[in-house]
Amino acid sequence: MLRVLDHPLAAHVLTLLRDETTKPAAFRTLTHQVTLLLALEATRDLATKEHPVRTPLEPVTGRALARGLVIVPILRAGLGMVQPFTDLFPDVTVGYVGLERDHTTAVARNYYCKLPPLAGKRVLVVDPMLATGGSAVQALDVLCEHGATELGLVCIVSAPEGVAAVAHAHPGVPVFTGALDRGLNARKYILPGLGDFGDRLYGT
Ligand code: PRP
Ligand code: URA
User: Which CATH number describes the domain made up of 2-202?
Assistant: First the structure.
């Protein structure tokens, strides 16, 4: 259930994101770019239905998206991945789950939750970093409790530990990631990773 982006532009953008000299303004632009690629991958199998239109020359039976899409960014770093989805899918609805890892234990604490109706929708959790997987699993748990049945997880950089945790807790949930890195350090940061995504995105 793991799909890693395989595109030269993704590799190029990820390398610039990893570069410690990349400043927040460029970091936000690069986040936008790689998320566009991820959004296309994560929505490749969205259902469509027939949609007849007239070209200037003749009628044609085209296709239209058939079902609603919901994205749920995990605050705060996930916010950097929202706009690429809303650009591509103007009718998307957006829910929010606020989770923050404790700096010493790396265990995430839930501090906010605001969700649209989820039943019958494709629901994509978006969070740039999948490290221990604790945040992603908590978010997926919350969404299941609120009626989501067709879930996916979209990340920019993942660690094998996080992928395994999600696969264990939510075996049917596909994970779309820009890169699968080597592992975690003692403080549960991804190696080589790119550091603290939220701090780099917002210059904190
Ligand atoms: C980061 C990241 C994920 C989480 C990943 O958020 O955006 O949500 O860590 O780590 P995990 O897989 O071990 O749970 P963080 O808690 O630093 O909060 P922030 O987005 O507010 O910076
Ligand atoms: N959160 C981050 O922002 N970076 C990591 O490497 C791990 C968790």
Answer: 3.40.50.2020
